[in-house]
Amino acid sequence: HSRPGHKEGSGAVAFSPSEKRVLVSCGRDKKIKFWDVHSGQHRRTINAGGFLDSIAFFGKGSKLLVDGIEKLSVWDLEKGTVELSVEFEGSAFKGAEALSFAV
């Protein structure tokens, strides 16, 4: 499926727990995009550098867990940087369809 703003297929969307008007999408175009749900306007893009399948917020919305085809990454959204990255080599999580956190 393709959502507006992603040039190749998109993977998942998630609402920010800290900013209720913000929806985040990820896609096969290697990008994480932030949207204002009221206006529909694009707010920000992070180039993640790999195909993306799933995303999930945690840390009160300041961090984003991103599942790609080759790795799992934790992004610090305030800094726009990767805090932790784990590469897959035959992992059971490779190509996961969805992510969620229990608090």
Strand content: over 45%
Strand order of the largest sheet: 1-2-3-4
Secondary structural class: mainly beta
What gap, in angstroms, lies between the N and C termini? 31 Å
Overall spatial form? globular
Can you summarize this structure?
The chain is mainly beta and 103 residues long.
Topology of this protein?
Layout: E1 10-15, E2 22-27, E3 31-36, E4 42-47, E5 52-58, E6 63-68, E7 71-76, E8 81-87
Antiparallel strand pairs: 1-2, 2-3, 3-4, 5-6, 6-7, 7-8
What descriptors fit this protein?
8 strands, mainly beta, four-stranded antiparallel beta sheet, single chain, globular, 103 residues
Write a structural description:
This protein has 103 residues and is mainly β. It is built from no helices and 8 strands. The protein has strands at residues 10-15, 22-27, 31-36, 42-47, 52-58, 63-68, 71-76, 81-87. The protein is globular. It starts with 9 loop residues before the first strand and ends in a 16-residue tail after the last strand. The model has no long low-confidence stretch (mean pLDDT 80).
